Amino acid sequence: MTDSPVQALDPGRDDEIRGLDNIALDLQPAGIGSRILAGLLDYLLLFLILSVVIGALVLLGVALAPVVDPGRDPVIFTVLLAFFIIIPFLVNWGYFIFLEITGNGQTPGKKQAKIRVVGRLGGTASTRSIVIRNLLRDVDLIIGVPLMATDGRCRRLGDRLAGTLVVHEEAKRDAMAERRMGRMPASWGASEVAVVEALFERAGELEREHVQRLGRRLVALLQRDAPELLEEPARSRPEVDPNPLRTLRQALQLEVVQPGVDGSPAEEGATGENPAGEDRA
Amino acid sequence: MDYAAFQRLRQPVWEGFEQALESARRQSRPSHQEVEALAMSYRQVLHDHALATSRYPGTGAARRLRRLAAAGTHYLHREPPAKSSGGSFFLYTFPNAVWRRSRALGIALGVFVLLAVFGLAVTIYRPGLGVAFVGTEAVEGMRHGRLWTESLTTTTPPAISSSFIATNNLSVALTAWAGGALAGIGSLFILALNGLMLGSVIGITLHYSMDAALFEFIAAHGPLELTIIIVSAGAGLVLAHGLVTAQDRPRGEVLRESARDALVILAGCLPWLVLLALVEVFVSPDPQVPVVFKLALGLALEAAFLGLAFNPLATGSPTSTGPGIEAPHPTGSPHG
């Protein structure tokens, strides 16, 4: 939602969700793809539930047929038949409402798509809001997609009327392997830090050659900005460093921190990740 | 403060907040002290999030803080629940919403009556319109002195009929309500269709001199059933009002208010449809029940509904708030 700090601080943006002390929350609205995926999964599950419920009622009817005589037990007979009409009706209208209320804004489909319904201020949506947005679901099957496509927050009509928003639930990946830098060149800013973090985070997914090349470029950058952090031979010849990631780790005192252990650094590899194609000397 | 120092200094706070949040989530009712401590560290996390977003965008810490801020807000900030429940809903909340939105309900009534009169006039002049609505089989039945409504209640067990009628009427009411979200077109369509159908049915029964039988059948349930369809569609027009005309107020605010009132009006209507389904199956078709009793029951139900809906004793009667100038609803809640 916010691409830069300037936008986050722009008082003219009325679509920004702001929390306590007027701080922009920077929530990530779920896009059409995630919403449609979640919807498809939910409708599939709804279909399965309805099939099971109707199948169970049919089996119950068959099992009771020899026992229940419509003439002698009219109440049991008619109540059973009435279930055929009432239960599918309740399941059909109640599936989304019940699951979003009890699942803190998440149906099974939304859980799979990692999205969640929140209130207009980013909090837990009220029961009333959830009922409104879901009673309008049928209307949104017709006009929801174009409305989402033209809205900055990707809201369908039900969301607009209920004052709700569907947002991405961010994965805990960064928290599971938090990297902490012990030191860094004084001239380095967020972009350099982000590049180093991204390289270590994604090194396992990239080709070794690319990792090595990117690593050497960062070592060269380090050599230019703060050569005192490097040891020989990287300090004098960064372009031929045989193990640039290890050099970077040592120079920046980069540690992998496992949360929940008092913020203390974990042993390398304790997080289960491959330390970035790094050669172990 | 550089990024390394920021991480080193603030990470314990983030860890503490994350653990406290997980712990609170696991409990059904965390203690007051726990929530208070969580709210305090939430505030610190939120400030760190603001700092990281502006000074260290795109870094791992910024991403982590964004996630923590969103999770904390979701847990600590809950929209206020509806203030009324049960009796107070029908005594205060429902009539207040009906009074506030009486203009939209009046428009719905007007459209319905207009189309009903039109349908009646056209059917009297050309009975073909009535035939189109009730079908040739029903017309054939009327020629032999039988009303088509008999088949529904005599060939199927009452529980089935009442369940079917209740779910059908609920579906019509929900459709009429939700149809308001299409700029009112859906609600107006349901109103027009039902009005036209009523007028045509009255016209065709008059044509075949079956009007007395129709009157006897609908006397107990008809008035309220139609009233509820009209009110539900009127609530749909309330939704449409929020969509189409925001005047000088923020549209989001007007939309939320409209939706809230529309939902209250719908919720006040739906339970009556279940009661009406029972009346329609057990009382309306029963020839043993005198017409006078059916009429009295129909009028009593109508009076009960209208008495609740337009209860002048409810707080916020039209003397204090008129349609379109209602006081703003309380929105949001204090954080933490």
Compact summary:
The complex is a heterodimer of chains A (281) and B (336). Chain A has 281 residues and is mostly helical.
General description of the model:
The complex is a heterodimer of chains A (281) and B (336). Chain A is mainly alpha-helical. In chain A, 52% of the residues lie in helices and 6% in strands. Chain A contains eleven helices and four strands, in the order ααααβαααβαβαααβ. In chain A, the strands form two sheets. Chain A has a two-stranded antiparallel sheet. The longest helix of chain A is centred in the first third of the chain and has 33 residues, at 32-64. Chain B is mostly helical. Chain B has 14 helices and no strands. In chain B, helix 1 (3-26) packs antiparallel against helix 2, helix 6 packs across helix 10 and helix 9 (158-178) runs antiparallel to helix 13 (251-282). The longest helix of chain B is centred in the last third of the chain and has 32 residues, at 251-282. Chain B starts with a helix and ends in a 27-residue tail after the last helix. At the A-B interface, helix 1, helix 3, strand 1, helix 5 and helix 6 of A face helix 1, helix 2, helix 3, helix 9 and helix 12 of B.
Largest sheet entry of chain B: none
Query: How much β-strand is present in the residues of chain A?
Result: 5-15%
> Radius of gyration of chain A, rounded?
28 Å
Number of strands of chain A: 4
Task: List the total number of helices of chain A.
Answer: 11
Main sheet makeup of chain A? 2 strands, antiparallel
Span between N and C termini of chain B? 29 Å
The first-to-last residue Cα distance of chain A is 44 Å
Structural class of chain B: mainly alpha
Helix content of chain A: 40-55%
Characteristics:
heterodimer; A: two-stranded antiparallel ribbon; 6% strand; disordered N terminus; disordered C terminus; B: 336 residues; mainly alpha; 74% helix
Write the layout of secondary structure elements.
The complex is a heterodimer of chains A (281) and B (336).
Chain A lengths: L4 H5 L22 H33 L9 H29 L5 H6 L1 E5 L7 H9 L1 H13 L7 H6 L1 E5 L4 H4 L1 E4 L8 H13 L5 H18 L18 H9 L1 E4 L24
Antiparallel strand pairs in A: 1-2, 3-4
Helix pairs in contact in A: 2-3, 3-5, 10-11
Chain B lengths: L2 H24 L5 H24 L4 H17 L10 H14 L1 H24 L2 H7 L1 H8 L5 H6 L3 H21 L6 H23 L3 H8 L3 H23 L6 H32 L8 H19 L27
Helix pairs in contact in B: 1-2, 1-3, 2-3, 4-13, 5-10, 5-12, 6-10, 9-10, 9-12, 9-13, 10-12, 12-13, 12-14
